[in-house]
Protein 1
Amino acid sequence: MPTALISGITGQDGSYLAEFLLDKGYRVIGIVRRSSTTPYERIAHLIDRVELVSADLLDQTSLTDAVGLYQPDEVYNLAAQSFVQTSWSQPVLTGEFTALGVTRMLEAVKKAAPKARFYQASSSEMFGKVQESPQRETTPFYPRSPYGVAKVYAHWITVNYRESFGLYAVSGILFNHESPRRGLEFVTRKVTDGAVRIKLGLARELRLGNLEARRDWGYAGDYVDAMWRMLQQDTPDDYVIGTGKTWSVRQLCDTAFRAVGLDYRDYVVQDERFFRPAEVDLLVADPAKARRQLGWEPQVGFEELIDTMVRADMDRHAPLGRK
Ligand code: NDP
Ligand code: GDR
């Protein structure tokens, strides 16, 4: 039975990856950071099937000990400060978690389990002010936020440990992926949750930022499969993962509000507070290499994804509202 160690297991992707690996027969160990509460909402249904170990991206000893104790075959580094907007108000902390935290994880692997295969959760935010469209593995980076800058560092330190120390380390450059487990601050979930709350009489309006920003949105369940595939190759390499299609935030609003029988133009208000100091206007993936070498294809399209999220938010809120 292979062993996988996942940092960020309590996050959206960590929960889907844990499910995916358990189904494949893995022993799954999740890194959790110490907290006065237990933020295990997303893995509550798995809690008897996974093992949890306390460690923190800020603390080298805890990471090295966790890797040393469990001797994983595969390490998935998904933990990060992952919200782009927060990276402007907490730029140093974002760098500590999202950039230097990766070096700490790589050091832990190098010292305690150098044969383990290592996955780094890289991001399309590294492309930022895009230098070509669609974006592929060779597209130059031009990050537009402290988060994006931290992810560029994380990408290159992963490549560097592969080339310097012979680690099996890969960087998966993933475009936005969403699900009913997406955090409420990210725009897809904010919109599906907002549309449902308005429909049920629990809110009157939804305040958003830039409606013209475009993203390549896929389903998180499909993307964790790509992460696993990257670690099953003969040689480590980096891959872009996305759908190749792009939608605006305005189209997202239209789709989600239509799903509850409303017109978004009656409820969505643009609010300066949600605009960003620098924006990424158009991200769209060229996932040809992943298709060719990993045999990976996204299974869930945008409209189905948003529909599923709306239905899940409806189930969650329905007991509180009026139909
Ligand atoms: P989430 O924000 O849902 O999850 C982040 C996870 O990181 C949580 O489990 C969180 O723990 C953990 N974490 C944060 N700080 C620390 C720390 N100091 N020590 C230990 N654990 C910590 O993110 P996603 O699941 O959406 O994303 C997973 C990864 O993929 C992230 O690195 C993100 O940047 C990257 N990514 C995500 C994309 C997406 O569209 N979802 C696209 C491209 C990249 P806690 O529960 O305690 O807060
Ligand atoms: P992103 O996701 O920054 O792409 O990062 P987010 O959903 O936060 O924003 C997408 C786009 O929507 C616009 N937008 C708003 N965004 C939020 N959050 N709230 C609003 O009210 C709002 N109004 C408009 C934003 O300006 C932006 O253009 C996500 C994260 O998961 C990262 O960790 C990951 O690396 C990237 O995706 C790929």
Protein 2
Amino acid sequence: MIAPDVKTAIARLRELVESSDVIVPFTGAGISTECGIPDFRSPGGIWTKMRPIDFSDFLASQEARDESWRRRFAMEESFGGAAPGRGHKALASLYRAGKSPGVITQNIDNLHQASGIAPEHVVELHGNTTYATCLDCGTRYELPWVKQRYEAARGRAPSCPDCNGHIKTATVSFGQSMPAEAMSRAEELTLSADLFIAIGSSLVVWPAAGFPLMAKRSGAHLVIINREPTEFDDVADLVARHDIGAVLEPFITA
Ligand code: NAD
Ligand code: ZN
């Protein structure tokens, strides 16, 4: 069913939320646009401005690593000050109420954790951009540490002082393998769901986009909240093509 208006979407979603025991939200960049972080595929999204840097390029060239860090520090203005939006708060409310065991996210912005969901209950399929790690030894580095060295070297990406490996934001780039543990935890959560809510994802990035379908096939109700149509709208029990904040705001509890 495609909800004809926000009011109907909220009413139908409320029925589904109340009749479900295990709600698993699956989020994409759209939940964070109201927080000032642009998504990729909307008009004006990040990809209308620049081509992503593949993992193989990052490994192969110092210039690609320098450019990748230049972009990351340029992004800090929008990412750095971002606070959770209405969608994040609504999901944190379901979590606190014991209705939702955790969130699966494609986002890298740390805003689910910031909204009060315990880090171990946020399954990050594409990692996290609010810190960095050494690709070889796994040591974690904070962004101010990287920035200081980057600037001191006039825009050259630093290497790991321990092992000389490349230091990269803790995100999963195109061409980089998916984190195995996050993938298996996401699958586990998905199969446990009786209500699966895909929020703000264009559902075109695989394998992440496979989870809504997996949930549906294993018997969960599927809700899609996204202002643009997705490929899975046909199989969903409820499609809300409306603003995420407007649909989820009534689910926020203090
Ligand atoms: P996407 O950009 O492909 O799709 C976002 C979708 O959200 C679009 O279909 C858009 O129409 C919709 N949308 C945006 N704002 C909305 C709103 N207020 N209400 C309703 N719908 C809204 O994003 P994706 O599917 O998450 O895939 C992009 C990949 O890029 C992700 O895997 C993620 O790793 C990364 N990314 C993350 C962030 C972040 O962490 N905030 C931001 C940009 C990209
Ligand atoms: Zn190292």
